[in-house]
Design a protein that fits this description.
Helices cover 34% and strands 10% of the residues. With 155 residues, it is of the alpha+beta class. A hairpin with a 5-residue loop joins β5 and β6.
Length: 155
Amino acid sequence: FVKFLEIQLDSCEKSVYCNESFIEDVMSGLKSFVVKFMINMSRDFATPSLTGEVTGERTIREGDLGEYQITQRRKWEHSTHPYIFFNNDTVTITFVGFKVTRRGDLIDPKSKLVLADGRGIMSRELYKGLVANKVNFDEDYNKWSKDIMISKLGT
């Protein structure tokens, strides 16, 4: 995952959409949103369900989790995992696994609950700019066929 994160952050730096001097006020704040989102995404991957798993020589117990500074335990396997991908074409971005309210809250598309660290993460201006640029936050990725998913992620 570290390599994926590195590639995505590099793509973010190179993206014309994250260049404030180019996009001006149309999608202002996209870079900040993406970086915050990717930090949350990396935390998500770094904090799977740890109870009872063996890491090297050591079994992790419930009391051991404090040293990892995990503030919210959850079953990783049963949680929503939102993603943002800068596609291979270096122009398009794919948003998967979350919806955005008009207030800028990231919500789980199934439960309709606000995702951890997702309250107010996107400015109203950025939301409007992304929607004006045809980002569909209401698209249900769970209904994508395998071919559509590969096409979107491999663009």
